[in-house]
Amino acid sequence: MAEQDSEHRGPAEFAEAWKARLAALLAQETVEVSGWSDIAIAELDTDLGWSLYAAASRARAETIARATATPSRHRGRDDGPTPSYEFSIAADGDGSLGRVHYAICEPCSVGLLKKISFSPEWHCCGFGTLALRELETRHPALTWYTTGQYTHARGFYERYRHGSDSPWTAQQHPCPHF
C-alpha cells in the first residue's frame, strides 16, 4: 500500500508491479519470515499464491468498475453560514471507498471542495475524477474551488481543472461566506 501511495500508479501499472514482486518472491526456494526459521516454498504454495493474486486482482477490478457516488447528505453549517454536504464513492455492498466533503454558497454561486479522502489502496483508480464530476453534475451552476492542497494532490487538481467544462478557480476565498 505504501508503495502504491508513493508511486501514484494507475491500477494496471500497480497490478503489474505487484505481479512482478509476487513472481520474485515465489521464485525463491525459501522465504525469511521475521521470528521464524527459513520457510521452504513448495509447488503448492506457488499455485496458491498465483490463485490468490488472480482472485484479488479480479475483486479489485470489479470494485473499481462498480463504483458510484451515493446521494449527498446535509452536514449542516460546520464553519460559517454556508451549508456543508458529503457523499461517498461506494461499490455495491462493499461500503465506502472514500468520502467527499463540500460546501456551497448559493447567493454567490460558489462551491468549495473541502476534502476528498480515499485509502491509499484506492488512489489512482479514477475515484477522485468520479467525485469531482459528481460535484459538477449535482451543482452545475457553481464555480468551484479547493483549499490549499498537499503537494502530491496539486497535480491531480490542476489536471482536472484544465480538462473540466465547469468553471474552477485557483483563487482562494472567491466568496466571503466561506
Structural description of this entry:
The chain has 178 residues and is of the alpha+beta class. The protein has two domains: 2-66, no CATH class; 68-163, Aminopeptidase. Helices cover 40% and strands 22% of the residues. It contains five helices and eight strands; from the N terminus they run ααββαβββββαβα. It has helices at residues 2-7, 11-27, 43-66, 127-138, 151-163, and strands spanning 30-31, 39-40, 68-69, 73-76, 84-90, 96-105, 110-118, 143-146. Strands 3, 4, 5, 6, 7 and 8 form a six-stranded mixed sheet that branches. The protein has a two-stranded antiparallel sheet with strand order 1-2. α2 packs antiparallel against α3 (43-66). The longest helix is centred in the first third of the chain and has 24 residues, at 43-66. 17% of the residues are buried. The model has no long low-confidence stretch (mean pLDDT 79).
